Amino acid sequence: MVDDTANGESVEILTSKLQILPPESQIEISWSSTSNETHRVQGEIVDYHHNSAARRIETEDRTLLLVPDASHEEITVSELTTAAIINSLGTLQTVTGLQHAKETLKINSKGVKLPPYLLGYSGFLVVDTHSSSKELRIPESGLNQYDDRLSCVIQEIINEDEPSVVKIRLRSGPHRQYEIIDNQTKSNTDKSKETVIESDYSSLEPLIHTVAALTEKIKDDKQLSKDVTKAALHKLQSLQTPLLKAYSVLCDPEPDATPVPSAQQADVNTIEYPTILEQIQAELKQLADTVCDEPSIDVSSQKVYSFIPAQRTIDDLFSLLTPPIPDVDDYDRGSYVPPREYTEGRGNGDGRWLEYQLSNALVRWGYNTDIRENVYCVEIDVVAARRKKQNDPTDWIVAECKDWESRPITPDVIFRLCMLAYTCKAMPLLCHTTHLTERAIEIARTWEVRVLKLEDLYRGSLPAPDMLDIQYDIDTYRYAGALRESRSMLPIIFYNKPNNHFTYVPGYKPDGPLYQYKSVEETTETD
User: Fold this and answer.
1) What is the dihedral of CA 512, 516, 522, 525, to 10 degrees?
2) Are the C-beta atoms of 249 and 103 separated by less than 8 Å?
3) Which residues of the chain are under the pLDDT cut of 50?
4) 346 near 353, Cβ under 8 Å?
5) What is the DSSP letter of 141?
6) 84 with 100: CB under 8 angstroms?
7) How many whole angstroms separate alpha carbon 265 and alpha carbon 257?
8) Which InterPro entries does this entry report, sorted A to Z (predicted)?
9) I need a surface site. Which of 11, 466, 484, 495 has the fewest CB within 10 A?
10) Which residues contact residue 335 at a Cβ distance below 8 angstroms, ignoring those fewer than 6 apart?
């Protein structure tokens, strides 16, 4: 066994620190990556193994696993992704306890009401306060509920020191701190009021199942981005943990009766995000109001049972799972573009949303359309044919869609589109949400590619291609030359070749300096 991890604490020290910290304790860990970089993060312990230093740590934005290797020479830090894939991050260096979790320990006339994890424990344990310590040896039969052996020791310590907090240390296990809630009778003549929860908290268990249903919905939702899914699941984990703790305190269940969160037991009519979040928010507000009015809980203790942090978590989930509502004016102008992270078909490498927008526009302009068709084993986004032919090359269209956030469109995109257009004998059209490089703009205009932005899809008819050069000098030129007039011709060797005019669709030739075409047959008859 190695005594020290590189530049960190020994494995024995790391293990002993992890063994004394119970679940819900706040810690800071550091680890060394394979590139010898040191990383630090704070988080909460969410599980505990008595015979191992293996732990699961929930941080603000991810889940970390601490796992000792088979030789116990080091402890590995790994990240557990939402897809249940474990990515190794490095070797654990230090563990620092930030906040030791504190639980409640109730004493009534029957004795000490033991938490479920102490039931059946046998061996040595120590009960500590700030000024005294008592050691117990529990035989093989183990502790039972309201066990006189533990009750007598705790009662003796209470009578001597009147502590508000005691610590119970197992021979091998966490050092758990407990806030004493003494509900037993003080004397025959002067009875202190027992802390009895009088209000109804029966809605807590259905709420726990509702959160479980929302968790399953998010896990299965392929429309959410990976970052949103990951953040939402962490928020739900931080929401579910205090709900389970509140249930164990406010509902006073029997040992081992804490509900297991189950999506199947959720009583919800819909799983749509806004609706279910509003339902959870309303129930949390009602629970928070009930706690404030609870006669058996004093003002100083209400923060222990407060549901206000849970309500803030729901606010965070609203911002993650529900897209912002645009202004009515944006809808009226038709300029509202839904955000990528909330819109199906706008993810990384997924252009379906823009393809459907273009297809719908072409249908309005009088075309029949198909999406994602193959042209000799090469996929094209949209193909269209005009329902009532107008004897024009635009009766047939081949379109490429690029719903890119910031990546520019380069000439290779234009060349690919033109190749497919010539192959299909249709006019090329590019629809995009980004920008073109200068060279791509030049090629698109020279090769008469219709370049459409989102706002062009709201027009009343198919827009014409850009064919005119912009004149920057207002004095020198009065006539703005068209691109057809300045476009160079084919090589001289092809000059006498029949039908060597520029066209995508056979049977048509350019007509005039702009974008019009006319039938070759009409030209022959006129000649």
Assistant:
1) 0
2) no
3) 1-6, 186-196, 300, 328, 330-332, 527
4) yes
5) T
6) no
7) 16
8) Restrct_endonuc-II-like (IPR011335)
9) 495
10) 455
Token pair, residue 380, equals 């094209």
- Residue 122: other Cβ atoms inside 10 A: 12
Residues 11-99, CATH architecture: Roll (2.30)
Q: What residue type is assigned to position 469 of the chain? A: D
184 within 8 A of 196, measured Cβ to Cβ: no
Q: Which residues pair with 504 in a beta bridge?
A: none
CB 115, CB 189: distance < 8 Å? no
Domains of the chain, by residue range, sit at: 11-99, 102-182, 204-321, 343-527
- What token pair was written down for 472? 């920057």
Query: Which of 126, 107, 127 has the alpha carbon at shortest distance from 181?
Result: 107
CB 48 within 8 A of CB 174: yes
Report strand pairing: 102-108 vs 86-99: unpaired
Report which of 432, 419, 423, 456 is spatially closest to residue 353, judged by C-alpha positions: 432
Same fold flag, 11-99 and 343-527: no
The predicted-structure confidence for 117-166, as pLDDT tens digits, reads as follows 677 777 778 887 777 777 888 887 777 777 777 777 777 776 666 656 77
The residue assigned the tokens 């100083």 is 300
What the block records as the tokens of 293 is 């009015």
Is pTM beyond 0.85? Reply is no
Encoded tokens for 18: 């992890």
pLDDT at 498: 73
Residues 6+ apart with CB under 8 A from 505: 393, 395, 396, 425, 426, 427, 517
CA distance 33 to 248: 40
Helix (H) or strand (E) holding 8: none
The whole-number pLDDT of residue 195 equals: 47
Q: Both tokens of residue 234?
A: 């962490």
Ordered alpha helix ranges (H), 54-203: 148-161
DSSP notation for 338-394: --GGGSTT-STT--HHHHHHHHHHHHHTTEEEEEEEEETTEEEEEEEEESS--SSGG
SS3 152: helix
Neighbours of 37 (CB within 10 A): 9
